[in-house]
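User: Could you go from structure to sequence for me? I need the amino acid at each position, not a summary. Structure tokens:
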């Protein structure tokens, strides 16, 4: 499995296709909620193997914080540790870029997953507009 910055149109489209499959089709998030202006400036990452694209995530610069979002792994690759590998790669890359912390808005069911990666939940649960409860989490890099 390889994880690389998606720096071509083809790689970015693969990231968007994964997000469509996971968030819009599986989780039934409204398409208008999934796509935003941040996609134009975000660093997108693509995980893939010999069978093709498997996972994605993006990073948005927010001061000294790397805001990680849109972390998605195709159903065929879940349970393999790919999500953790994507997160570890993003955190290492963010630290190398000079960010001192990472933050994300975790779906409530995924809080334990991010906690194992060093993220700490802050504040109350909230609906981010998708109908799914989230909680802010941060980690030092």
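Assistant: Here is the amino acid at each position, in order:
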């Amino acid at each position: 499995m390889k994880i690389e910055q998606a720096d071509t149109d083809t790689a970015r489209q693969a990231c968007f296709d994964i997000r469509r499959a996971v968030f819009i089709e599986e989780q039934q998030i409204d398409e208008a909620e999934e796509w935003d202006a941040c996609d134009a400036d975000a660093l997108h990452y693509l995980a893939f193997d010999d069978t093709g694209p498997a996972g994605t995530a993006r990073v948005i610069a927010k001061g000294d914080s790397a805001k990680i979002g849109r972390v998605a792994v195709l159903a065929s690759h879940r349970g393999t540790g790919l999500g953790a590998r994507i997160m570890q790669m993003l955190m290492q890359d963010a630290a190398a870029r000079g960010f001192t912390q990472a933050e994300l808005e975790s779906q409530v069911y995924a809080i334990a997953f991010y906690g194992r990666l060093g993220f700490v939940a802050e504040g109350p649960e909230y609906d981010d507009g998708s109908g799914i409860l989230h909680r802010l989490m941060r980690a030092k890099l």
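One structural detail worth keeping in mind: Residues 2-140 form a domain with the Aminopeptidase fold (CATH 3.40.630.30).
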